[in-house]
């Protein structure tokens, strides 16, 4: 029996956070991290964290995310720097 995949997937809830760190050479790196979080308040059933392949983005998980939503399980999809939504740049 095939599982039906609904066509009315909800749009992912995207968030952004700026993370700054210093390299070994003393340069500051400002990273704008973009990620998806389906249940920011958490879930008593657990959390699934998805790391995409190369190339890819959080969108690689759109079908399993929908199933996790139905099961009330939190999903966090991370975008690696330089892929789709997330960039990094050096600050002087």
UniProtKB/TrEMBL annotation:
SUPFAM superfamilies: alpha/beta-Hydrolases. This is Serine aminopeptidase S33 domain-containing protein.
């Amino acid at each position: 029996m095939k599982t039906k995949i609904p066509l009315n997937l909800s749009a992912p809830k995207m968030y952004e956070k700026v993370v700054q760190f210093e390299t070994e050479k003393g340069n500051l790196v400002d990273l704008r991290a973009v990620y998806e979080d389906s249940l920011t308040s958490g879930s008593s059933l657990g959390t699934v964290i998805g790391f995409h392949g190369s190339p890819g983005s959080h969108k690689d998980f759109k079908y399993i995310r929908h199933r996790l939503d139905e099961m009330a399980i939190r999903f966090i999809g991370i975008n690696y720097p330089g892929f789709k939504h997330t960039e990094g740049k050096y600050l002087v």
